[in-house]
Amino acid sequence: MTRNQNPASNANGKRHATPQSLNAAIKSICDIMRRSNCAGAMKYVPELTWILFLRILDERETHEADEAEALGITFTPTIKQPYRWRDWAAPDCAFRKDTKASVWKFVHEDLLPHLKGLKEKRGATPRQKIVSEVMSGVERSRVDSEKNFLDVLDKVHEISSETVDPTHVFTLSQVYEGLLLKMGEKGNDGGQFFTPREIIRVMIRVVDPQPGKTVYDPGCGTCGFLAQSYEYMREKAERAGTLTGPVLETLKRRTFYGREKDDTIYPIALANLILHGVDEPHTCGTATPCPACPPMTSFSEARPNSLIAC
After folding, report:
1. β-strand partners of 189
2. pTM for the complete prediction?
3. What is the Cα–Cα distance from 95 to 91, expressed in whole angstroms?
């Protein structure tokens, strides 16, 4: 007898197997924000960026910890207890079940100051510095009440690698793309264009970037080209049997550069790269200049082995 399948899932069991499905999930989150006086895409974008980033980072580091344990090597988490998503935001965590605890108070008085201060800690890792950059503009949640905030957390918790099909969906980038369309409909700044993933893949296959070269995108947006370039270069090296430790370290720390003039999008760019595995992305916005990233006009002279995506 065949078990009934969830109509929202496809044959591979993923709940969000299409961009439309993920857009619907994001819309449901935005509906909660609207009822809490957080209307407008320019409010949705930064709020969803940091919440979704913490959710996916925690899931990613859970997998990395499991892999490290299997290999018998030490794993140092970027965010430690009690600041991990699973400790305070997951619906089934002990903190959420404690009737005397306040997630709202914890986030504003403890979590946000802690995350923004990670880069100042002695021995801070590149990933911890990125987390601080992503959180740097978050003074407090834009949602107006703890109840609505908890509803948002519950919805975001449902977006994970277990429910999203990575073949078709750019989880972080698509959050912004879907909201950008709404901005354009209202006559706002909807003219910015974020390249579909299929086109990005075709262009990268044509350019065929190789380990040892650097990749630079002077208008990187959400860093879709850089993130996909990393995956392409890593997978190709794996198939060729040339993905040594030094090669992987070079890819993660000394390969990808980008600039984005829109400081609203810049945190999304950082989040996208770090979640793809680029531990030290050299990207910058207008408010956060990167000393490792030369001016656009001189980049090809400063780094003659660079591939420039325009």
Report:
1. none
2. 0.76
3. 9
